[in-house]
Amino acid sequence: MTFLKSIRTISELVEPHKFPFSIPILSSGLNLEFSSNVTFFVGENGSGKSTILEAIAEGCGFNHSGGNRNHSYSSTDTESDLAAALRFSWMPKVTNGFFMRAESFYNFATYIDQIAEEDSSILQGYGGKSLHHQSHGESFLALFVNHFNRGIYILDEPEAALSPNRQLAFMALIHELESSGKAQFIIASHSPILLSYPNSVILSLDGDAISQVSVQDTEHYRITRDFLENPDRFFRHLFEE
Ligand SMILES: Nc1ncnc2c1ncn2[C@@H]1O[C@H](COP(=O)(O)OP(=O)(O)OP(=O)(O)O)[C@@H](O)[C@H]1O
Ligand SMILES: [Mg+2]
Q: Which ligand 1 atom minimizes the distance to the CA of 44?
């Protein structure tokens, strides 16, 4: 089920020339409904996916650099102007969940090691050993399997850690949690595999306004398919003198 039903910006707090409203897709604010348990953001690099996810995570009360309500390891973060302008509509409100920011997973792992020095049982929740002693994909799946349960999960490019095979396993875990009504996922992704998740909603940031698209309409799907069907055609074009 969706816990977070919608988000919208208060128009008086949208300052179009100031970051992050200077990002084209945010220039007139943000107004989104979450109608599926699994929502993806797609868009070109720099289109604003991480900016939006971070603001949603802040609104959920999760640490800006990744983690949940109880994790506060980056005291330098201040509330983003987008988070300050957003209003959230919940039914019911949940406080449990997690924000995974791909770039700061390393810092998160270090933080977990630090708190585990005082209470080693903490590591049980992360696959039984330090996240630094597991590979990127292993540590991510350990976090997911041991920690994700009921709540809202905000994930920024989870595929960065995962082989295609593990992406499939990851989707089985998503399915287990979302189809039983336990969890809602909001995910930024460039992976045509993940984007194919059934009954998800894909919101594209490419264009004048955020719009819902099918996976087949995404560049991620089309370019990957066309490339794999005939790589030489792409290389001839790419490498021509
Ligand atoms: N603190 C900042 N001040 C000004 N501009 C910023 C700041 N942080 C990010 N930007 C810009 O905002 C835009 C959106 O960045 P964002 O990280 O949200 O993109 P993204 O869609 O997540 O891209 P990617 O697919 O590469 O992860 C980019 O043009 C980026 O350069
Ligand atoms: Mg990003």
A: 25
Cα–chain center distance at 165: 19
Which residues have CB atoms below 5 A from the ion given as ligand 2?
Answer: 49-50
| Nearest-angstrom CA–CA distance, 122 and 129 | 9
Q: Which residues contact 160 (CB under 8 A, 6 or more apart)?
A: 102, 136
Q: State pLDDT tens for residues 141-154.
A: 887 887 788 899 99
Ligand 1 atom showing the smallest separation from residue 19 Cα: 4
Question: What pTM was estimated for this model as a whole?
Answer: 0.90
The superfamily (CATH) of domain 4-103+150-239 is P-loop containing nucleotide triphosphate hydrolases (3.40.50.300)
Ligand 1: which of 25, 49, 64, 99 to mutate, most ligand atoms within 8 Å of CB? 49
Low-confidence ranges of the chain (pLDDT < 70): 1, 64-67, 69-78, 102-104, 241
Distance of alpha carbon 99 from alpha carbon 196, whole angstroms: 22
List, for residues 103-133, the tens digit of each pLDDT value. Answer: 667 777 777 788 888 888 888 777 788 878 8
The binding-site residues of ligand 1, defined as CB within 6 angstroms of any ligand atom, are 19, 23, 43, 45-51
> Quick one: which ligand is closest to 44's CA?
1
Strands 183-188 and 38-42: parallel
Q: Where are the domains of the chain?
A: 4-103+150-239
